[in-house]
Design brief:
15% strand, alpha+beta, 316 residues, 2 domains, four-stranded antiparallel sheet, Endonuclease I-creI, 57% helix, five-stranded antiparallel sheet
């Protein structure tokens, strides 16, 4: 099962005890997923999903909130034969009006097609906003596998609905953005910690912990990789510097000799040749009396300057 489906399965088991929160969640589901389809003597209301657990959540919310039974039909997906499409259908016009008025999605008559955006009266409380976002994700949302990348999105066909949802998510200090993908408007979040925050808003606590575990492991791996890369770069720099110092010292020895060098320079030159792998600190500790890293570096720089001067004179 994908991470996205895991989240939906967890959210599908949650039925709020507060009627106002159930109405808010239903408002999102009906607004994003509901269609009013005209028939000879009125309309019927249809909700569709490819998830059995989501279909069960739709059914339970309507039954618990309105004590209305709703038909469920199943058909095979025309393109993906292994998938099923679950359709929840309500044919009683009075019941449809009762539900849509309670969720504040209509004021008067029914109109065929998509149902309008949610009324602000239904999502005034923070708890109702949480429920609404939960319903939005169940009907139109998805998440990528956090082991690969962080991406949360809810896909909507209406710009005003997308803006309303974006603003609602932002009330929880989460930076949701909108992009256009073909003819759809996608409300999305790409930052891992903010997706964690949104899972908390929707009360998907198991998924939240699973995502946090993935983030911790990824951060540990990234930290180790950064440390290894840093150490490798430092080793490479040290090896290159030591190699250059030895080349300079050998050039001085072969073309000038160590006899004319100051005592401190001759001593460090011999130590560097004898201990090519030693750090500056280690070289300094070998001297009598010992000197610090900066003192060793100063002497080696002087040797490098002497070697460069000898090379210039030779070229002339």
């Amino acid at each position: 099962m994908s991470f996205s489906k895991d989240v939906k399965e967890e959210l599908s088991t949650q039925i709020s005890q507060a009627r106002h929160c159930r109405l808010a969640e239903l408002s999102a589901i009906l607004s994003y997923d509901g269609k009013l389809i005209p028939v000879k003597h009125g309309y019927y209301l249809r909700l569709q999903t490819e998830s059995l657990v989501v279909a069960r959540k739709y059914f339970t919310l309507i039954k618990k909130t309105f004590n209305i039974n709703i038909e469920i039909s199943i058909k095979i997906h025309s393109y993906h034969k292994e998938n099923r499409i679950y359709s929840l259908i309500l044919r009683d016009t009075d019941s449809i009006i009762r539900i849509l008025q309670a969720t504040k999605l209509i004021d008067g008559e029914l109109k065929d097609g998509d149902i309008g955006k949610a009324n602000q009266l239904i999502i005034q409380n923070a708890c109702c906003k949480r429920a609404f976002i939960r319903g939005a994700y169940l009907s139109s949302g998805s998440m990528s596998n956090p082991k690969k990348t962080y991406h949360f999105e809810i896909v909507l066909s209406d710009y005003d609905k997308a803006v309303q949802l974006q603003e609602m998510i932002q009330t929880f200090s989460i930076d949701a953005k909108i992009i256009i993908r073909k003819k759809y408007y996608v409300v999305y979040i790409k930052e891992g910690s903010q997706i964690v925050d949104l899972l908390n808003v929707m009360e998907a606590h198991v998924a939240l912990m699973n995502l946090e575990n993935v983030r911790i492991l990824k951060e540990m791996r990234n930290s180790i990789n950064r440390q290894v890369n840093c150490e490798a770069a430092n080793i490479s720099k040290t090896v290159e510097a030591a190699s250059k110092q030895i080349d300079d010292i050998i050039y001085i020895r072969d073309n000038y000799g160590f006899g004319e060098l100051a005592e401190g320079l001759e001593e460090i030159a011999l130590l560097r040749i004898q201990h090519p792998e030693a750090s500056l600190k280690e070289l300094g500790a070998m001297l009598i009396p010992p000197i610090g890293k900066s003192g060793v570096n100063h002497r080696l720089r002087k040797l490098s300057m002497i070697a460069d001067h000898l090379r210039e004179n030779k070229e002339e």
